[in-house]
Write a structure and sequence with these properties.
Oligomer: single chain
Number of strands: 8
Structural class: alpha/beta
Shape: globular
Strand content: 5-15%
Largest sheet: 6 strands, parallel
Order of helices and strands: HHEHEHHEHEHEEHEHEH
């Protein structure tokens, strides 16, 4: 949608600008607002995976009482607490793992896989400057994480989520010849910023059932506590918690 808006705006603005420049000889400085608006649009598109501006990403599933809980940045010591909760409530989830975290906690990663949860690629090192890396460096991050998952779990992951949800032409090129399906979200918890557990729970809960692809992190205790609240409340309300494989199947059901 943003891409169509920018293209339409550019065509309209350039048409008006050229006409005005030819008829009224307006200053060329009027082109700068167009440049600024495009720059803002590109920055927005780079930071919001849901816009599908640079590459296609899954951000929706079938509406209803089906939820895909997804956890980024693990495995960590908190992951086992989450796995215990998921097992207790017979719930499945998806973990987008960092390669170096798998190397630190291989037994936890193996438990994730053995208990029927999906593991996705979240790069090897989760670089904070991902949006500024070359195509080759992005590819190395993705390929090294892929190899790490193969080494410790014995399978090839199918799903990728970029750190911070950042996309740009280099990331799109790095993914172009891979088999990966890019997974986004439509319910962002902001659990790495919101410390108040009631506020965090309400932020997720009030968006359901329509926004049912939930982004969380298995990196802190407040996320674990809120997941426990969600599992208890939503199980009582007859929600089903599925991994991303089953979530995508429901999309076409």
């Amino acid at each position: 949608m943003l891409k169509k808006i920018l293209i339409s705006f550019n065509l309209l603005y350039l048409g008006l600008f050229l006409t005005s420049h030819l008829l009224f000889e307006i200053s060329l400085s009027w082109i700068f607002p167009l440049i600024l608006i495009n720059l803002i649009g590109i920055i927005w598109a780079s930071s919001d995976l849901r816009l599908n501006f640079f590459l296609p990403a899954i951000t929706q599933g079938k509406k209803g009482k089906i939820i895909a809980l997804t956890f980024d940045d693990g495995p960590t010591e908190y992951t086992e607490e989450l796995l215990d909760l998921l097992l207790k409530y017979n719930a499945k989830a998806t973990f987008f793992c960092i390669g170096q975290q798998i190397e630190k906690h291989p037994e936890i990663a193996q438990r994730i896989h053995s208990e029927g949860h999906t593991i996705g690629n979240h790069t090897q090192n989760h670089p904070k400057n991902l949006g500024f890396l070359s195509v080759e460096k992005v590819k190395k991050e993705i390929e090294t994480c892929h190899q790490t998952i193969q080494k410790y779990m014995g399978f090839s992951p199918k799903y990728y989520r970029p750190p911070f949800g950042v996309t740009n032409p280099n990331i799109a090129k790095a993914l172009k010849n891979t088999h990966y399906t890019v997974i986004g979200w439509n319910n962002r918890s902001l659990d790495t910023m919101i410390r108040n557990k009631t506020q965090l729970f309400n932020r997720i809960y009030r968006k359901l059932p329509n926004r049912n692809l939930v982004l969380l992190h298995d990196t802190q205790s407040n996320s674990v506590e809120v997941v426990e609240q969600l599992l208890k409340r939503l199980t009582d309300e007859n929600y089903i918690f599925v991994n991303i494989d089953d979530f995508l199947k429901t999309k076409h059901a």
